[in-house]
Design brief:
The complex is a heterodimer of chains A (360) and B (261). Chain A is mainly alpha-helical. Chain A contains 15 helices and three strands. Chain A folds into two domains: 227 residues, no CATH class; 94 residues, no CATH class. Chain B has 261 residues and is mostly helical. The mean pLDDT of chain B is 92. Classes of the chains: A mainly alpha (360), B mainly alpha (261).
Chain lengths: 360, 261
């Protein structure tokens, strides 16, 4: 039984299955939010997680990765994100039902009353403050902060990992070159976050939890934050070992584990496999199919969608807002597209011009 | 008049006491108002708030906790600065001494764990603000201030990560800053950098690109340590404090903590 759980865990956490399962979970959470946001569900989830943890604790490989001092925050992150996602959806479901009946939302009902900051707010702030001070002190006394060997620029540890909060981006390095994963995408995330209030044309759902009034916005943020940020941080921390190879939670971090790299550029697919001829020497000609594809993706798709599916959205948002949103979304969508193509047809680059460090 | 009342009066009716506390015990509307208005810390708050805005199940207290953790970081960081010297020979042994010999060296643990926690609380704060649609008008500007504060929080944590000067620190920063090599145009391994050259003379190379600017060198060395130290202890905290002032101010000016309009 124990071995079966361990092997199943190792199998389920492979990057492909881990990502697909995370997507399935988020879809299920959104679709069945009414059934999943009940109290027994969250209790079951936490009891299950605790039981799993207790079971896994005795396994030396699992224990080693979980008890690394800097990985403790990620356990906290996992637990809090699960709990607060559940809580917010629960309140959204309740509010949506109230709105459907024509009643004010939970927050709307309470907002009618005003209370004195002293004592009502000051007290809860004080309790939070004391609780967190206590938590921090206990945590600090129990778990010493990590200190490894003195810095040695000649000895590269394997794996070399960025601080844990950037491991989602480091995970993207599997699929993209550093100029996209490490520069463009973080830049677009920040720019996209800044743009959100200006491109969201929906005036509803201001100041209370709801799903029905902003289904697209909520789903988008769930996917972006829970899947592409938090789940990837967890994947990058716990499941990536030496050489950034994948290791299941119960797998020994064997430095000699080799993952075959047989990835193929789009240009090879086009010239060699489709046209059955050698790839042209001029890089621009060689990469023409990829360049056309990428330009088409970024320039034609928004226009096409504006004429068809997003006709009303386009009208609501205006030309500028629509284009900004679409470009952010297309960059965002490029991540799952590239991942899926890597898993299915081992695609390396759409456009591969190492001559200019220009690989997409 | 009971004895107890007499004793308490002998304290609270003195000129000394009254010079500090301008109001009586906050159990009447008037004194509760004064308690908030006449205290510089509490004065961050309005006198009254909507009941919806103080429910933990609505706010998750994440913004407040982030601010609290920032204060903890400031305090513990200040204490650590008495013991830590940011040079390649001394940094590691100073951090090690905090664990082994320095009284209350546990401050380093508090500093590190609170820093990790702060990253999480900032993310969750943003999560809550998004899910309740609290970035919508009139709060667009404050959302943007928040986005910049998020970036500053990550930068604070990132610059602090280098300071212990152990293998964990140096290689995490090496991996992180290696990305800057690939900055389009401005990194020496970035697309387009080769275009910035004139007659075979390259303007962007390993000795002057973005990464070199971040690290004050071609690799993570003493220059990077000093640079990160100054940014960590002075630069980013000052920016963060300034932006936080704007952030809190705008919460008040935009109609108080968000709630249904």
């Amino acid at each position: 039984m124990g071995d079966f759980i361990k092997e199943a865990s190792n199998w389920l956490t492979q990057p492909t299955i881990f990502s697909l399962l995370s997507v399935a979970l988020i879809v299920a959470l959104v679709v069945f939010r009414r059934q999943l946001t009940t109290i027994p569900v969250i209790v079951a989830v936490f009891v299950g997680m605790t039981a799993y943890f207790v079971f896994a604790w005795s396994d030396p490989n699992f224990n080693k990765i979980i008890t690394k001092p800097d990985n403790v925050p990620i356990i906290i992150l996992l637990a809090t994100v699960i709990f607060f996602t559940w809580l917010s959806l629960r309140r959204a479901v309740i509010n949506d039902e109230r709105i459907a009946k024509g009643e004010p939302t939970l927050e709307g009902e309470l907002a009618k009353q005003k209370v004195f900051v002293w004592p009502d707010l000051v007290y809860s702030e004080f309790i939070c403050l004391v609780a967190f001070t206590a938590l921090l002190l206990v945590w600090s006394i129990e778990i010493p902060a990590p200190i490894e060997e003195p810095a040695a620029t000649a000895r590269t540890p394997n794996p070399s990992k960025a601080p844990w909060y950037f491991l989602g981006l480091q995970e993207l390095l599997v699929y993209f070159d550093p100029w996209i994963a490490g520069v463009l995408l973080p830049g677009f995330i920040i720019a996209g976050l800044c743009a959100i209030p200006y491109v969201d044309p929906n005036p509803k759902g201001n100041g209370y939890y709801t799903f029905n009034e902003r289904p697209f916005a909520i789903t988008f943020y769930l996917v972006g934050f829970v899947l592409f940020w938090v789940a990837f941080v967890i994947l990058g921390t716990f499941l990536r070992g030496p050489n950034w190879s994948f290791f299941g939670p119960f797998e020994y971090w064997d430095i000699h584990k080799l993952e075959p790299m047989v990835n193929v550029d789009l240009s090879t697919y086009f010239w060699v496999k489709l046209l059955d001829m050698p790839r042209p020497l001029n890089p621009w000609v060689r990469e023409l199919p990829g360049i056309v594809l990428v330009l088409g993706y970024f320039l034609v798709t928004p226009a096409l969608l504006a004429k068809t599916v997003f006709r009303t959205k386009f009208k609501e948002m205006g030309v500028v807002g629509y284009n900004i949103t679409m470009h952010m979304l297309l960059w965002f969508a490029l991540i799952p597209i590239k991942m899926a193509l890597r898993w299915t047809v081992s695609l390396k680059y759409f456009v591969g011009m190492p001559e200019f460090f220009f690989n997409i | 008049m009971s004895k107890l009342k007499k004793i308490s009066n002998s304290v609270t009716k003195t000129q000394l006491w009254r010079s500090v506390f301008r109001h009586g015990y906050p159990d009447t509307p008037r004194n509760r108002t004064l308690a908030v208005l006449s205290n510089v810390v509490l004065h961050l708050h309005p006198v009254k708030v909507r009941r919806s805005g103080i429910r933990l199940s609505y706010t998750w207290c994440m913004g407040g906790l982030t601010f609290f953790l920032f204060l903890i970081e400031t305090l513990t960081g200040l204490l650590l600065m008495f013991y830590y010297r940011p040079t390649a020979e001394l940094a590691y042994q100073d951090i090690f001494a905090l664990r082994e010999h320095v009284p209350l060296g546990v401050m380093r643990e508090v500093h590190r764990w609170a820093a990790h926690l702060m990253v999480i609380t900032v993310w969750l704060h943003m999560y809550r603000v998004f899910l309740t649609g609290s970035y919508k008008p009139p709060r667009e500007f404050n959302w943007n201030v928040g986005v910049i504060l998020l970036v500053i929080t990550l930068l604070l944590s990132f610059t602090g990560y280098l300071l212990p000067w152990d293998q964990l620190a140096v290689w995490a920063i090496t991996v992180g800053t290696n990305m800057a090599r690939a900055t389009p145009l401005l990194g020496h391994e970035g697309p387009g950098a080769a275009l910035l050259s004139l007659g075979g003379l390259e303007f962007i190379h390993a000795g002057d690109d973005v990464r070199f600017g971040l690290l004050a060198g071609r690799f993570v060395g003493e220059g990077a340590l000093l640079r990160f130290y100054v940014l960590h202890c002075v630069g980013f905290p000052l920016i963060a404090a300034g932006l936080m002032a704007v952030h809190f101010w705008r919460v008040r000016k935009d109609g108080g903590i968000s709630g249904p309009l």
